[in-house]
Amino acid sequence: MKRLKLYLDTSIFNFALANKMPKEQEVTQNLLNEIKNGQYEAFISEIVLQEIGRAQEEKAKDLIKVIRACSPMELKINSETNMLAEYYVHSNIIPRKYFNDALHIAVATVHNIDAIISWNFEHIVKLKTKREIVGINIINGYKEIEIYSPWEVVSYD
């Protein structure tokens, strides 16, 4: 059976360490465990690593440990991903100020990932974003990409 390819944005790793949000932390850790157990293929991009690099040194080290534990493949940014992210911004789906959010979506789209998993409800996991990204992707010859929060992905027994 084909495993789904999941793109994890930076918020996933932040919430894995979010002690002040225990429910979200637990769901995130469950998702990462499902990835470690081979239920999904995990992917990140260099944007995730750049964003983590801006964290305080100790937190950045902890975040890198979380990333290494689930062994995601790193996707590259290229001219195609940049053009698609610019299209999302130009189409008023993602504000210019949050270009990295557009780039997360574009990287996952261009690299043919099945779904983006994020805790970013402001710009990514949002009805408007989901609907408009699908339209832009289809117009530009890409497949539809799903966008979910970890709540919607983790198995509940």
Give an overview of the whole structure.
With 157 residues, the protein is α/β, with parallel strands linked by helices. It has one domain (4-152): 5'-nuclease (Rossmann fold). 52% of the residues lie in helices and 13% in strands. It has 7 helices and 5 strands, in the order βααβααβααβαβ. It has helices spanning 10-16, 22-36, 46-53, 57-70, 79-90, 99-110, 127-139; strands spanning 4-8, 40-45, 73-75, 115-117, 146-148. The chain has a 5-stranded parallel beta sheet with strand order 3-2-1-4-5, sandwiched between helices. Strand 4, helix 7 and strand 5 form a beta-alpha-beta unit. The longest helix is centred in the N-terminal third of the chain and has 15 residues, at 22-36. The model has no long low-confidence stretch (mean pLDDT 96).
Layout of helices and strands:
Layout (H helix, E strand, L loop, with lengths): L3 E5 L1 H7 L5 H15 L3 E6 H8 L3 H14 L2 E3 L3 H12 L8 H12 L4 E3 L9 H13 L6 E3 L9
Parallel strand pairs: 1-2, 1-4, 2-3, 4-5
User: What global shape is seen?
Assistant: globular
CATH homologous superfamily identity: 5'-nuclease
How many domain modules?
Answer: 1
* Portion in strands: 5-15%
* Percent in helix: 40-55%
Radius of gyration, in angstroms, nearest whole number:
15 Å
Report the uncertain regions.
none
Strand numbers in spatial order across the main sheet? 3-2-1-4-5
Number of strands: 5
> What is the second-level CATH architecture?
3-Layer(aba) Sandwich
User: Number of helix segments?
Assistant: 7
